[in-house]
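Appendix B. Extra example for self-study. Work through it before the problem class; the solution is given directly after the inputs so you can check yourself.
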Amino acid sequence: MSTAYKVIVNGQQQLTVDSSQGTLLEAMEAAGLEPHYHCRNGFCGACRVQLVQGDITYINEPLAFVRPGDCLPCCCVAASDLEINQ
Amino acid sequence: MSYSTFNQNQVNPLLEPMFFGNSVNVARYDQQKHSIFEKLIEKQISFFWRPEEVDVSRDRVDFQALTDSEKHIFISNLKYQTLLDSVQGRSPNIALLPIVSIPELETWIETWSFFETIHSRSYTHILRNLFTDPSEVFEDIVINEEIQKRATDISRYYDDLIFYTQLWQTHGEGEWEVDGEKHLVSMRELKKKLFLCINSVNALEAVRFYVSFACTFAFAERDLMEGNSKIIRLIARDENLHLVSTQQILNLWQYGQDDPEMKEIAEELRDEALNIFMKAVEQEKQWAHYLFRHGSMIGLNEEMLCQYVEYIANMRMEAIGFDAPFKQRSNPLPWMNKYLVSDNVQVAPQEAEITSYLVGQIDSNVSASDLGDFEL
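Solution. Structure tokens for the complete assembly:
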């Protein structure tokens, strides 16, 4: 099964992420997006982005409160094509 | 209703709100209403550390070589952090434990406060190493006007909640006169005070620590005061977790996942909560001004520090449902992040970027000649 998905960031920039190659945050960094982060471990919530469309899977369950419509890229991977707002 | 250390009524903690329900009786964690607090406890305990593990002896030499303005920055920040942790080491216990109603949150509050006391002890550890007699530094904390201004705002919401809770627990609801002043005690009023108190604590954990963190890590970027920076890293990691807990409480209320009355109050007092946050941000900027009044330090100045406060405030405010009020969307101090990444905190000592890595080290090499003059 393919683990490569398309991610649209802020409605314009498009990148391809491979879920088997690390977290969404790492993929965003690799694409030069400079996402916010602190703990990289799901408990500070600093990397929070808006999840407009698509599914993600948490590889570590986040401790920070994830408000409806948000996701924490530091501890999740894409499970479908995504649209996010940074 | 008076507080009982062991409430003998049969209560189902799964149906209790976080606060102002029946007081907790059995400390059981097999079932949880809000399991997040149990997870926070586990995480926090896994972070356990002792200040004495960190060798700060090289810091004394570094400190002597700092300029006067840098010494002012360093010591003022330590004083301020000492104040913050003095408050946080006791207040959640005194203010929140008498009114908490679910066991996992009760234990989280105790764990949280306990870790703040570790932080307080670590400031003494740092200061004792820098000064032969650190009394002057500690004594200045209650005299220094700049610190006092902050202390007033930090403690007042706690004090208010504590006072009204005491009135309620001794006299019940009603209007009571104490020292010639009338106080209206009602459940609604108590809950409002609780809401404001949690907002004030949230602002404290969210932004108040970060000005001094930034200064500490700016020293570490120049390979100065590294023992201190190692301790502050551990503190920053803990504070991040404490912040998560207050954000959780506020969000659970806002989304109506706990006490429905708290949801109403959260809407009613939204502006006041916003003001608490904005005032904390303003005070932190003033603190940055005070720090740099004798001159800045390499790699950091008042303007950058204020931008960082705005940047971090934006992030923290969005986390509890406010719009980001400031323009600063990019991180003006990108090097801060490497000190805040939790994975970077606990690494094999020899791999750490920090050079003073002796952790509770003892010399275990004993040669035969060491025992040469030993007789039975």
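Self-check: Chain A has a mean pLDDT of 91. If your reasoning did not lead you there, revisit section 3.
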